[in-house]
Amino acid sequence: MKVSVWKGGAEGRFRQFEVPRQASQTVLDVVTYIQRSLDPTLAYRYACRVGMCGSCAMTVNGVPRWTCRTHVDRVLDKDSLSIGPLKNLPVIRDLVTDMREFFDKWARAQGQFKGNRSKRDDFQAVKPASAERMQVDAAIECIGCGVCYSACDVVAWNPDYLGPAALNRAWTLVRDERDRNAVARLRAVAGDAGCHSCHTHMSCTERCPKQLSPTAGIAGLKREVAKSILRGEF
Predict the structure, then answer these.
(1) pLDDT tens for residues 83-113?
(2) Nearest to 66 by CA among 54, 79, 78
(3) What's the rounded Cα separation, in Å, for the pair 172 and 177?
(4) Domains of the chain, with CATH numbers?
């Protein structure tokens, strides 16, 4: 099959390779074959190879995906593949992007848990069946792969936008009854670059490899911001 792979930095270009087809072949297998057999200078990331770490995320035929979980048979288009770096992130080299601004936005969204108990205190019990805990459970499995960020149209239009992953993280903490930073967090996500910039295109939800719905979490943040304003907390 014919494979086009991005080479270089932001001003790079696609380079063509011919790669043999194999049974149960993944896109990551294709990239690894190219690096090991055709172009040893090719830069890319991977770690677990079983869909646990998310570090192998790339753009495959225009769609952000985990390459270790994407079988060639599912995405091959007329015996050809196009593989590039994740969109909406600076390209370091080839298929490697700079994730710093992605995680910096988690910090801007107050994505750190802040409780009021010390290691000397007993654990604070949380009822698993409570509505708040169930909302947290539905959103907490994000592993920070960047697929949703790459798929987000609003990030493409507004680079300051916090993005679906950071806002999803903020939502899980807002609904965590043990956290004591909810008001400051809602203030952090309420600005022009925050939850109200989301246009509800659902791209993040459609592309999330973990089947999470950042769109639902962002909608929840919008509601909580409105309630906080009515309570006079802003």
Answers:
(1) 999 999 999 999 999 999 999 999 999 999 9
(2) 54
(3) 10
(4) 2-97 (3.10.20.30), 100-230 (1.10.1060.10)
